[in-house]
Fold these 2 entries.
Entry 1:
Amino acid sequence: MSPDAAGRWEVVIGLEVHCELRTETKLFCGCRNAFGEEPNTNVCPVCLGLPGSLPVLNRQSVEYAMRIGEALHCDIRPSIFHRKNYFYPDMPKDYQVSQYDEPINSDGWLELPNGKRIGVTRAHMEEDTGKSTHMGGGGRIGDATHSLVDYNRAGVPLVEIVSEPEIGSAEEARAYVSELRAILVATGASDGKMEEGSLRVDANVSVRPRGSTALGTRCEIKNMNSLRSLGRAVEYETGRQIDLLESGDRVVQETRHWNEDEGRTSSMRSKEEADDYRYFPEPDLVPLAPDDQWRKAVRDSLAPMPSDRRRALASAAHTEPAAVALLVEQDLDGLVLAAIGAGADPRIALNRAANEVAADPDGAARLSAESFARVVTLEATGKLTATQSKQVLAAMLAGESDDPEAIAEDRGFEAMDTSALQAVVDQVIEANPGPWQRFLDGDPKVSGLFIGQVMKKTQGQADGKAVTRILQERRDG
Ligand code: ADP
Ligand code: MG
Ligand code: ZN
């Protein structure tokens, strides 16, 4: 694809994310909802679809669905279940119980770290299918000698979150899923583990002439198991569709499969329409109508969402929400906020948290906000140089002690007094007449050499900023 061609088109993406709920038991029976167990051990007549068995709705799954709806700013409404009819061996009833035109959550949105809002069309409840494994022939059904089916996953509760077609790039698609995952984890509804299939993403991709408002014909891509493959699949599919349109062909609406090894999508089947599924209301379940009291209890029990946490930290640290997104993602915002609350310098607190603390998650779990605030303050007031403060923090993270003053004293980290430092700087100037002349002539690069020499002579105890100041004083007479 030429850069010109890429400039003439824009991509439009809508995502469907299936989220497995972290309930103890399945959606309509008492079987355990657990990942990675011996196949076909968590099954019963209900989730195997045996004749005469009847579903009983899991209350906790409704609560989780409502939490997700609240967190995504949805309208939470009375809803009903439908049967979505189709045949596949991993779906023992030959229909999936899902929600169709009266979903529990609709018309919401989520906010990306950069402030852009993406509409959420709906977030409805449904049951998961079992899992088939095709044996022999590299896992492909066409070349397989036989297939195995595990029904442990059949009937696990899901919420499917459907976005509006408002995502404008592969990068933004990844940001959306990453934000959604953080929200789902914050609600307590999901463990967010993409690698265990707790979160599964289908991407609807179309392209249109840049600036146009009509939607192009879309393809739906399945089988992306990570944020990385989501990004790659969308990039590939965008290029494929632009190439087709540029050469005068058209895009055919279909479902496509992402092949991670080959790095491309390939046609799987033509797109089903709603008609093909013969939806009808599930006669074995009553309508679901959570009362106001339950909805209020759910609303009150929600922890702050990532966007709220970004805003809170950004305002305390006088910066932008996007600048603190990573700290919130790493769950370090509480530490920094507490340190700022205890009087620590916001800029230094942010830097030490984002670098030293973030690099050591185990140590971070041990670190108290109070001692973190103290080490930051030692640095901010010049009692420790940046280098020394990093070393003290490293010792605290390693579990040596949570008393930064004691560690500093043990290491002999005393702030050098100014006259001692001046004396060392003067010695170094005297020993390096050539570089000193260059410094006097205005070459700023040689100051690094002087700082290095002073550091060496003082075993790192000197404050680099103080050395620079003394060099300037000596130069300016
Ligand atoms: P289905 O259930 O058949 O997949 P939906 O109408 O529920 O169809 O749409 C599913 C997803 O496809 C939604 O996320 C929606 O935003 C997205 N979508 C619909 N049309 C387009 C399009 N032309 N380009 C990109 N995404 C689209
Ligand atoms: Mg779809
Ligand atoms: Zn069961």
Note: The mean pLDDT is 93.
Entry 2:
Amino acid sequence: MDLEIIPAGALRINLDERSYAIHVDHFADHSWCDGLELPVGTSAMVVTNDVVGGIYLQRLVERLTSRYPVVHFVELPDGEDHKDWKTLDLIFTALLSKGCDRKTVLYALGGGVVGDMTGFAAASYMRGIKFVQVPTTLLAQVDSSVGGKTAINHPLGKNMIGAFYQPQLVVCDLSTLKTLPKRELRSGLAEVIKYGPIADMEFMAWLESSVELVLDGDTDALAHCVRRSCEIKAEVVGQDETESGLRAILNFGHTFGHAIETGMGYGVWLHGEGVAAGMVMAAELSRRMGMVSSEFVARLTSLISRAGLPTRGPVIDAADNAGRYLELMRVDKKAEAGEIRFVVLDGPGKAVLRTAPDALVREVIDACCE
Ligand code: NAD
Ligand code: GLY
């Protein structure tokens, strides 16, 4: 299949007065700082981590200096296992010690961990200040930087403490993906793959023809991946900003995936790896509920495998693996009165929320784990 490239230029997420632009392009050296309309403020603070900061921070601070009277920065420790209260507090300490006020603008420079924590800090510092997402991982560019979900983890559950809080602007600089480790690129691909089965089978077919190009870092293929993913996400979030219904489809594979991340210890399985194995489990659950064919489950599993992602979940508890998954999955934001609600496929390209009997879920876990 030919590449159908979505043209460059800003996408938009329509949320009334909270609407904003999503810019997806190759920007040499943070040149977007000069060209784009940025939120006005008394100061800016760049939040990053000690890995991304070493590569991109200095230049971004220099560029922003021409747009704000003063530019501060704070570097957090890297990793999912630092997505917690203690690390969040480093942002508040930096803001307070630098005398930042209600007109300070936060810039999240990094992957989903930095983005989710910066967004949460922006939502709560002085009851809310403006922030801009500058995602530097594929996962953050195709998913976490868009839509305003912000959070930290709790030892008992993933992303359980947070807020819906929209950024003012999202800038996806595709050139930052050149320094991203391959394992992280693959992890991001899981969230890209997700959009096909839940919303766009044409996109899934395109990915099936192009997944190796994406893995090789092909410029056009990556641009198409990010733009189409952001388009689908913006469309869904535009209809259901705070997940009263439709938005839950974006969590396809996540109920199982979050259980894997929490159960294994944050950072052992990357978020996208958990989602990848979780999508196979959710597809298999859909099949056992009579909603998709075994051919479709095999097709999705094959794409996930070609992306270099796990297609089987880990054993979290040797004594009662399915029981442990169920216990972890009950701590899920979609659960109601202790009843787990799964995103399942109602045919290829359409997702719905359903409950399922524990016995059936146990069968799926037993069939889908190592
Ligand atoms: P991450 O933020 O941990 O980044 C992955 C790794 O890549 C880190 O070590 C980071 O330092 C490094 N890195 C980032 N950019 C780099 C670059 N350009 N070059 C070199 N190294 C770079 O992980 P992630 O996969 O980006 O995000 C995962 C997080 O996102 C999870 O906490 C997940 O819960 C969250 N998430 C949130 C949403 C949402 O809607 N808010 C959606 C999906 C996932
Ligand atoms: N990543 C799921 C959502 O934004 O709703």
Note: Residues 9-179 form a domain with the Rossmann fold fold (CATH 3.40.50.1970).
